[in-house]
Amino acid sequence: MRVFSGNANRPLAEKIAAYVGHPLGEVMISRFPDGEVFVKYIENLRGKDVFIIQPTCYPPNENLMELLIMMDAARRASAARITAVMPFFGYARQDRKDQPRVPITAKLVANLLVAAGANRLLAMDLHSQQIQGFFDIPVDHLFASPVIMKYLQEKNYPKLVIVAPDTGGLKMAHGYAGTLHAGLAIVAKQRKSATDIETLNMVGDVDGCHAVLVDDLTSTAGTLCAAAKLCKAHGAKSITAAVTHAMLTDDGLERLRKSPIEELVTTDTVPRKAWDGVNIKVLSVADLLGEAILRIHNDQSVTSLFRI
Which of 82, 173, 235, 272 is close enough to 164 for a disulfide, judged by CB 3.0 to 4.6 Å? Predict the structure, then answer.
């Protein structure tokens, strides 16, 4: 086994490498004067089982190209198998044609990864489950819910209600509610634009309850904050948000500061930035990803990693 990391989230890669018991491999990643990426592996990869850890978070184009070039270099160095480990799979929001003359970027990225030499993909909380079907190679899709649920269980909230901030998150919210023996509510919304949300109605009862909003991703926090305001208006005692990937922009941070959300629980799938003025709890998924890497390397099942 050889484990390598790009520049997207080096701290997470180091934690994963420590868990699997293999130090990160030596690879030189630099830029030509015009900005093109140059990659050179320092060690021999011939016949090795190679894992390349690289979420395609901000800046997505740089990190995606870095991953593609790293895989191409490993393939040309005669690696036996190349697994792309993507804690965050970028360009996943565009997973269907919902209007005329638009791309399906999730499928495009899948094609690029395979063309670059990926034999397998290990990802966490894809934006939609059907993205797995865009690949003709094996995909191991992990969930951060075991890590987040453990934290929520330790909080021991009385009268807990799990809230889906939109109908797309209903399946995730239903899973949380069933495991935590909590109530379930859904916020119906209508999106005005990529940044503005118009919330319509709530299905379910949050009056006097501790509401936990769950989602896979937030960047501008428009959906979360609109749902949180609606929960507050319906009598929620406290409001917590739990998302796997916190790709927070400056506008998103400003919304969170003004929102009734008391705590945002997230993971280290993407690197943490300066999040001043917002109560954010970051949980590590390094052990979960590390265990999956070990099981893939040893041709063992990863199903038990879904159990809570």
Answer: 173
